[in-house]
Automatic annotation (TrEMBL):
Protein name from the UniProt record: C2 domain-containing protein
Domain C2: 13-99
Domain of life: Eukaryota
SUPFAM superfamilies membership: C2 domain (Calcium/lipid-binding domain, CaLB)
Signal peptide (from-to): none
A Pfam family the protein falls into: C2
Entries under InterPro entries matching the protein: C2_dom, C2_domain_sf
Organism of derivation: Ricinus communis (Castor bean)
Length: 99
């Protein structure tokens, strides 16, 4: 039960732009909420049908960790997503990439 009474300590290291807890482990510095409404005028690569589409997001400091919307079957050139994605951010200078 003692672990519930311990205060958590967070430290910011300006040279690395990351947040760490008292043990030096990375901690999230914030949460990025993305609401994907729709996409417009996507190049349709399917000749005879509307393409299946999705949106994929990543942060530049960790490009291998991606967050995607659901696939819109037959979404074509103008798909409607209306979906919220939540990304934990650990670097303050992170840049969002969309594919």
């Amino acid at each position: 039960m003692d672990s519930f009474n311990q205060a958590r300590v967070f430290r910011y290291n300006p040279s690395s732009n990351t947040m760490t807890d008292g043990d030096g482990d990375p901690e999230e510095s914030g949460i990025l909420e993305i609401y994907v409404h729709h996409a417009r005028n996507i190049h349709n690569i399917c000749i005879y049908d509307n393409q299946d589409v999705y949106a994929k997001f990543s942060l530049t400091y960790n490009p291998d960790e991606t967050h995607s919307t659901r696939i819109i079957n037959g979404g074509g050139k103008n798909p409607e997503f209306n979906e919220k994605l939540v990304i934990k951010v650990t670097q303050l200078d992170a840049v969002l990439k969309l594919q």
